Amino acid sequence: MGRDSFRGNDLCEWIYLQKEGSTKVELLDGISRVKSPSISIPALMSSCQRRAAKEIAACRSLTTLVHGPPGTGKTTVIVATTAAWLSLNFKSFVLCVSQSSIAVMNMAEAFLKHNGPDFRIIALQELSNEHLSEGMKEKLVSSSDIAPRFLDGNLFKDGATRVILSTISMLNSDILGPIYDRYPPDLIIVDEANHVFTGDYAVFLQKFRRSLRHVAFFGDPMQLSPHASETIRGVYSVFDEKHLRRNGVLLDTSYRLPLPIAKAISSAYGESLKYTHEITSWRDCIRFIDVDSGFEEKQGQSHKVPRQCYIGLIEQNHLEAMTVVQLVNNYYANSNCAIITPYKAQRLHIADLLDKSNLATRCIYSADTFQGYEADIVIFSVVHTVSLGFLCDIRKLTVMLTRAKKLLIIVGMRRFVSGMARKTLLGSLVNRFNQFNGFSVDWKEVLHGKARLPLLL
């Protein structure tokens, strides 16, 4: 798609060519004029959340960037923005999209939680077989059902549904063509925009060039960047574009992370965010399980593999995997728990051990699959004991360390994390709490069920 194809498309010219659009847009006061009693906007929104929603609904520019660090309520703002936009534009149609299906489902949960506008989730066939709540199942439309339900008039009853949630790949496909021909969107909201290559927007920006008035990008540039951005020049996100950051809003209050963890990570970043959380003591929210005898393995070999052979090999740590499984089995089998580890080999190994212990295996994630998600308890398997590996990737580390709503448990070798890895984000976090008695727990105590760990009711 060449530069000439963007002519006459204000959004494409603004995003890709840095040219201000000529289209005149009507100014709207998004938050203060929401009148519909059927739409509930969260009453306890912070001033920065209200400003973000208002900036988008006001439509004073073609794009808005909302920078939301972990736990600052990005999905809450998305719901409020959608409600405000629809209440002021009674013929509008809004698309909320993201790169991953997990992020799409998180947006859907936020719409249900906050009693937002009616919506439908357009998803691939296999997603409809996932374990979903009854409320979510009612909103789900699989790709194979779109055509018959649309033709029967059962997809959008009485015009009440004016919001569609889907992945960007689904949005760019021709499957939804009949819907968009009849209901062209005038607002598109992109969640996790930091993880999306800017060029991926060109297809739908061209497709909806006659109806689209505004695109709002939500994300955190300190988290995952677009795939291959570190190895291929020119792969960047909208947060890397200075001209787009001019129309930006920072969400400056964190709600998800327990205060001790939030302050430690913010201090490592040099950020000055505000925090609000019910957990204020480190004893209730963070532990380090010291697996001092574990070693990372490379492609089935021991840690003695020559350093020049590390690149591209498979990483796993058997003793860590065994400790993680016993953590779940002895302490958190009935809790909302997620296991995060960076390497596929370690995830498969943990899944195999969980299965042999008759424990659920669907709670294991990587940084890529868990971005935008959260859990009460997060167990993080470090794997590394002699090489830094992914620990040098601050964006992936940020995702892994900021998903816990109540308790973060790090499983690794303490002397390695506090020593060789001390300058990483993980090392900075661990060394902040190393001074406290009880922060570090020996892995053998976990195996025997004698460790003193926070238990969540």
From TrEMBL:
SUPFAM superfamilies (UniProt xref): P-loop containing nucleoside triphosphate hydrolases
Residue ranges of coiled coil: none
Species lineage: Eukaryota, Fungi, Dikarya, Ascomycota, Taphrinomycotina
Family annotation (InterPro entries): Coronavir_polyprotein_1ab, DNA2/NAM7-like_C, Helicase_ATP-bd, P-loop_NTPase, SF1_C_Upf1
Keyword annotations of the record: ATP-binding, Helicase, Hydrolase, Nucleotide-binding
Listed GO MF terms: 5'-3' DNA helicase activity; ATP binding; hydrolase activity
Naturally occurring in which organism (per UniProt): Neolecta irregularis (strain DAH-3)
CDD domains, per database record: SF1_C_Upf1
Every Helicase ATP-binding domain range: 41-245
Protein name as it appears in the record: Putative ATP-dependent RNA helicase ECM32
